[in-house]
Amino acid sequence: MRAPIGTFEDAQPATERLGLLPAPVAAAVTAEMIHVDTDPAKADTADFVATYGEDLKDASANCVVVAGKRGSDVTLAACLVLATTRLDVNGTVRRHLGVRKASFAPMETAVSETGMEYGGITPVGLPAGWPLLVDSAVAEAPYLVVGSGARRGKLIVPGKVLAALPGAVVLEGLATPVA
User: Fold this and answer.
1) Which residues form the YbaK/aminoacyl-tRNA synthetase-associated domain (predicted)?
2) What 8-state DSSP symbol labels residue 40?
3) Can you list the alpha helix ranges (DSSP code H) found in 53-93?
4) What pLDDT, on a 0 to 100 scale, did the predictor assign at position 111?
5) CB 76 within 8 Å of CB 106
6) CATH number, domain containing residue 17
7) Which residues of 45-54 are buried (b: 16+ CB within 10 A; e: fewer)?
């Protein structure tokens, strides 16, 4: 199978790669998702793009776990934004979650709560009940590369499929371009 974006030697339907995916991701992948086998040492966006294709710079999305606090209550959520943008944690995220303070969740929290590896967290297979805030640019993209839940491998998913994941809410202005 040939991936619709990038230059990957090994691409297969994600439903045929369940053994390479963490349990929550394996339980949630669908037929529209493609798994590409990649070098775990090249999982960070800059290294990934240099290795697998410059066209992926504008076709990659990052899933970030945030923690919103109001008093002693903590709300965990995931945000999905293009890799070329910066998440508006203190504005759009904070207001949407209805919290007084929002920040990136600690690595240990993100890993333990999602069951995924740091550096590979994906919006596919998030814990039930978590809000998934999706930037409108993500929803409009034909295909995007996102994490697979592990540092080895990525998923290629149509933007409309990402916008339809459980708990997803598409928001304008969730992210701004990096200057």
Assistant:
1) 40-162
2) G
3) none
4) 97
5) no
6) 3.90.960.10
7) beebbeebbe
pTM of the model: 0.95
Q: Distance between CA atoms of 6 and 1, rounded to whole angstroms? A: 13
Residue 164 has which token pair?
Answer: 């339809």
Number of C-beta neighbours around residue 19 at 10 A:
6
CB atoms within 10 A of CB 22: 18
For residue 88, with 0-12 CB atoms within 10 Å meaning exposed, 13-18 middle and 19 or more buried, which class applies? buried
Residue reference for tokens 């290294």 = 47
pLDDT in tens, 114-167: 999 999 999 999 999 999 999 999 999 999 999 999 999 999 999 999 999 999
List, for residues 55-80, the tens digit of each pLDDT value. Answer: 898 999 999 999 999 999 999 999 99
Q: Cβ distance 5 to 145 under 8 Å?
A: yes
- What's the structural domain count of the chain? 1
Place of tokens 């009940």: 129
What distance in Å separates the CA atoms of residue 57 and residue 124, rounded to the nearest whole number? 21
| Domain containing residue 46 | 11-177
pLDDT of residue 87: 97
Asked, for residue 6, whether it belongs to a domain, the answer is no
